[in-house]
Amino acid sequence: MTAEKWPDNARNSGSVLVFYFMLLYLPFQQYLPDTTMGGGINLLNLLLVMLLFSALLVKAPDYSRDYARFRTLIFLFMGYTLCSSLINSSRMGIIDALITWKRLYFISVLFIASYKLLQTERQIKTTMAIISLVTFTSAIQVLRNTYEFRGMHYHDGMRYGGMFGRGGENDLAAFLAINCFWFLFWSQGSRVPWKRLLFLGMAGVVGLACLFCYSRGAYLALFAGLLFYAWKRYRVLLAVLALMLVTIPAWAPQPVRERIEMLTHDEKLDKDTSAQSRLVIWEGGKRMMAANLLFGVGPSNFGAHIREYAELSPTSPTASHNMYLRMGAELGLPGLWVFLLILWHFFRGGVALAREGRGWQPTWATAYTASIIAVVIVNYFGDRFFREELTGYIWVTAAIGYRLRGMAEGTPAEDAAVTAIPATVPVSG
Question: What's the chain's Rg over C-alpha atoms?
């Protein structure tokens, strides 16, 4: 492959500045005035179209051998979900079916826009800094809310949804769990001791905020991601995790202990009405998938059809609480297979970059792979992959992963412009 040096000193174009604005705007849509226009179009949709159009005009070296194949996979996924929407449009009509498809799946184009626009190391690190800033801000909001309502129990309806709005506390917990690992990347990449400690402290704040969202799926996701990162890059963290695990009764607040005990004590799980209703819904979802193997029941139709396959009380929620089951039921087995293939490419790309990257890239790749592990786990306990506020950053970081692999593949060692973060990252911490 012909090697070209990356234009790392290039100025940010107007499109990249719009991209940065979109990163800040995306997760906070619930806080801002409603921008919905006719046909379900809103400001985010306009930004995505603008960025996609600008990205298609970018003439940049494309080093990644896998990018074209993965882009084709995304188009296949979007096309198949669109077919499922149209085939199952009788319940809501074609226009509403298209609007629903746009709301759930159009965010995928952010991968293409991010890959094309982020051409330099500076742009990539600025993007990661914005994601980290938004994550830390969200964590501070959670802790502030927890302190303000410290006299109340989470069963009193005081769980905090933050930027995901009322009822979005599990999505917020997933967001924090998925993006906590970037602070470990920043910490290990700094040469300055106090900065390393600062970023470690910020990771601790995000992890603590995740605990106070009281989402058991997020607990497992965060722990699994940290375990992977510690094993690959930061062995001292293994001892810290083990110590925290055995001393949970000593340090964890009572509501957090209660949520953890529901995962580890069968008698408490049996009394958990939320967990029991999920099991009933999952069984019904399996029957729904078996009855609609090819195109499913259509995007966003799981809740409308689940009572046909499961006996639920009139007041029971109808959410699937499992992304994979929902994908299979709404899109059929081919749609589920493509979705799983996308997640596999995410994970495989991170592992490959950790092995092949230079300089700071392997550390970033380890944090990225840990975040994908968290994505896989939180979506087993909830259908999280539909929220634009949550999914957007996943597509962005996936694009960065492919772009960094392009840097590793297409740039000889003597030309690699990756010196801003030390090339040697300690394994032992």
Answer: 22
pLDDT score, position 272: 54
Rounded Cα distance between 36 and 127, Å, is 26
What the block records as the tokens of 288 is 């729904």
Tell me the two tokens of residue 78: 């979007």
Local confidence band at 5 (pLDDT 50, 70, 90 cut-offs): very low
The H-assigned helical ranges of 5-108 are: 14-25, 43-56, 67-87, 94-105
Tokens of 106: 């159009």
Structure tokens at 124: 């990539």
User: What tens digit of pLDDT does each residue of 39-66 get?
Assistant: 678 888 889 999 988 888 877 666 567 8
Residue 236 pLDDT grade (very low, low, confident, very high; cuts 50, 70, 90): confident
- As a whole number of angstroms, the distance between CA 332 and CA 284 comes to 15
Cβ-based neighbours of 309, under 8 Å, separated by 6 or more = 284, 285, 287, 288, 291
Query: What are 229's two structure tokens?
Result: 């990162």
CA separation, residue 185 to residues 199, 218, 406, 426 (Å): 9, 20, 20, 12
**For residue 291, how many other CB atoms are within 10 A of its CB?**
13
Continuous H helices in 315-360 = 323-356
CA distance 407 to 387: 31
Give, in order, the Cα–Cα distances in Å from 199 to each of 129, 191, 207.
12, 12, 12
Cα–Cα distance, 257 to 143 (Å, whole number) = 17
How many angstroms separate the CA atoms of 97 and 224, rounded?
37
35/277 Cα distance (integer angstroms): 36
Mean pLDDT of 143-153: 74
pLDDT digits (tens, 9 = 90+) for 259-310: 777 665 555 554 456 667 888 899 999 999 999 999 999 999 999 999 999 8
What is the model's pTM? Answer: 0.88
| Assigned token pair, 283 | 């069984």
